Amino acid sequence: MDVEADFQGRKVVLTRQENRRKRNRRQKRRDRRKALRKWGRRAALSLGLVVVAVGLPFLILTAYSYTMNSEYFALSYIDVEGLQFLEEEALLEAAEEVAGEHLFNVRPERLEATMRTLPFVAEVEVERRFPDRLYISITEYEPVAIVVDDGFWLVDVHGEIFLSLHASSLEEELWKLPLITGLTRADLREEKGRDELHVALNVHRYYQEMGLAEKHSVSEIHVDELIGISLIVGEMGTEVRLGWGRWKERLERLEVVQDSLIRRGVDPAYVLIDQEHDLSRVVVGRRTKPGNGEVVESEF
Length: 300
Known about the structure:
Shape: elongated
Distance between the termini: 146 Å
CATH architecture of the largest domain: 3-Layer(aba) Sandwich
Helix content: 25-40%
Order of helices and strands: EEHEHHEEEEEHEHHEEEHEEE
Structural class: alpha/beta
Radius of gyration: 46 Å
Strand content: 25-35%
CATH class of the largest domain: Alpha Beta
Number of helices: 7
CATH topology of the largest domain: Rossmann fold
């Protein structure tokens, strides 16, 4: 505030400033209020963090305890897919250790390792399906033949031996598989042996596709490195020697010979279609009398 005053005969303008002491008090009060509010916010935040830090683990522990003790997650159902040869009872016995177990406690990889030891099981996948179900997918070996080598050994399409069986335990469906002789388990560990197995199986497939099995079914396929592939066919066990290669041509020739033998009522002991070049020449060994072992050889 400006005030005019006489000072020794002179007019002097005095500027009166506001009372600084009062202003400083008001400012201090405002500053204290701001500080209190800021401290309050910080205290509330700190208190909230303490509550969360203490309460959250408790809530988690409570939820975990409830979940792990709740019957809602107890294993009640097992779904199985892919069984053909493996008996369901054997699979359920392997899964018995987890029956009624809490689903969170089931270790799929442990159960898979156990089930891979079961017969016919090539691959297995175990999956937990909440809240109370276990899904098991089985991939079985596909048996394509029975190798006879000091017992009966099932082999798959890759020539891998995967199961040893006694004759009494072979199911009727498995007995329909061709018996392979002349190849050993040691042979099938080598590529050459597996190739020969595939050749034998292909010859058997051609034989069936051409309808020859309807006349004389195949009971055995013999593999010999020197004489080639031989089939044992019919109720009397006629040996059909096919040699190596040109399988379809040899089987077509066999069909003609078989038809002729059936018309004549001839019971052959063997049929040789193993000539390397001239397949028109077929040698037939005829039994003179059933059971006496005498054979008369002729050409067709």
